[in-house]
Amino acid sequence: MSLKQRREDEYFMQRAISLAWRGTGHVSPNPRVGCVLVKEGHIVAEGYHQCYGSHHAEVEALRKAGSSAQGATAYVTLEPCSHLGKTPPCAPQLVKAGLKRVVIGMKDPHDVVNGRGIRILQDTGVPVEWGILEEECKWLNRGFIRRVRDGRPWVTLKTASTLDGRVAMQNGESQWITGESARTMAHLLRGEHDAIMIGVGTVLHDNPSLTVRYTSGKSPLRIILDTHLRTPLDAQILNGEGTVIIAGFSSKESKKAKEMGRRGKNVLFLPEKAGKVDLQKVMCALTDLGVNMVLVEGGATLTSSLLAEALADEISLFIAPSFMGQGISAFEKFIIPSLQELIHVKLRSVTNVSGDLWVEGVLACSPAL
Questions:
Q1: How many CB atoms lie within 10 A of CB 226?
Q2: Cα–Cα distance measured from residue 84 to residue 223, given in angstroms and rounded to the nearest whole number
Q3: Phi, psi dihedrals of residue 67, rounded to the nearest 5°
Q4: Taking Cα atoms as reference points, which of 36, 30, 34 lies closest to residue 53?
Q5: Residue 199 vs residues 15, 24, 62, 246, 302: alpha-carbon distances, Å
Q6: What is the pLDDT of residues 239-291, one digit of tens each?
Q7: What's the rounded Cα separation, in Å, for the pair 268 and 270?
Q8: Cα 49 to the chain's mean position, in Å?
């Protein structure tokens, strides 16, 4: 491939990636996908997967292009599907459209595709290139990759702290450490995830609703880890639909469990480990619920436990330019025996949000995409 062709491919793939991001918060458990159709250096049509159950990106672009698709090059962020799901497979429709060439960002790691879409195109004589801006495409669908390949969601730990790492006073007071702009960005984060997860301690102390506010966006599924079902029946988080309580087997026959069942509350009972719900089993349960990405807003116990079991992938830390001194640390229950075992973070961005710092990065313990 010539350098000119490579640059052109990357240019239009970047456009497809930007389109795919528009499906954030609407397409799970499907991946985010964008498609651009190009002929003689000009875009003739484009599309993206807009919501679960709707047309896939390739079909959306082909519908817009009509007969103009013939002889065009398709740029797709993810390998076209080859199986019948909610919608017909995309690979045969690309063949039928008479495309000149197909350029793919990354292969689909799902077992039902995983190279089959590429083979369908190649077997019918359509030239295919893949691996164009592959790392960007993998980041776009990191949650989908983690779920279908590794059997768990992508887990992001979100905290708001002072410069000395305190998330609350010793008496538990924590509202508000960061400013309004940082809180707005935190709500945007909620809208980008399929689920928010907290421990029952946060429910009992803060009585949060965990909905998306301060900005527009769909409120995600709300997950409470509550081994012994201590969540009050009048807790704000139980208002309306979209809350799942994950409890231990030992609570299944309790009076509280029966009462929650009578009130239509969604409770999943899972095995316990060391007196708490087994976090590995929690991740399997979230996978079964179709959760690609989960945002953890829990306290020190939950965040520390996820780090200890290497079940966290990403951090999103909002840091106020202030000191608290004595107080509660977000990770104070996580113990590292030596400096050689520090968990390192690959920083992706550090942003000034109206005076607060927003630090984002990937944990070294997170499996490679």
A1: 22
A2: 31
A3: -70, -15
A4: 30
A5: 40, 25, 46, 10, 6
A6: 877 899 999 999 999 999 999 989 888 999 999 999 999 999 999 999 999 99
A7: 6
A8: 16
Global pTM value: 0.91
168 vs 54, 184, 200, 324, CA distance in Å?
44, 19, 17, 9
Residues contacting 146, CB < 8 A, separation 6+ = 152, 153, 154, 292, 313, 367, 369
Q: Report which secondary-structure segment, H or E, holds 42.
A: strand 42-48
Measured CA to CA, the distance from residue 54 to residue 319 in angstroms comes to 39
Beta bridge partners of 128: 102
DSSP 154-220: EEEEEEEE-TT-EEE-TT---TTSS-HHHHHHHHHHHHHSSEEEEEHHHHHHH-------SS--PPP
Which one of the listed residues 8, 40, 46, 58 is annotated catalytic?
Answer: 58
**Residues comprising the chain, all counted:** 369
Residue type at 207?
N
The whole-angstrom distance between residue 328's C-alpha and the CA centroid of its chain comes to: 27
Asked if 358 and 185 count as a contact pair (C-beta separation under 8 A), the reply is yes
Residue 104 near residue 20, CB atoms below 8 Å: no
- Condensed to tens digits (0 to 9), the pLDDT of residues 174-223 reads 678 888 888 888 888 988 999 999 999 899 988 888 888 766 667 889 99
Beta strands 34-39 and 42-48: pairing type? antiparallel
Residue 134 a catalytic site member: no
Q: Look up residue 243 and give its amino acid.
A: T
The residue behind tokens 């429910």 is: 203
Here the tokens at position 132 are 């164009």
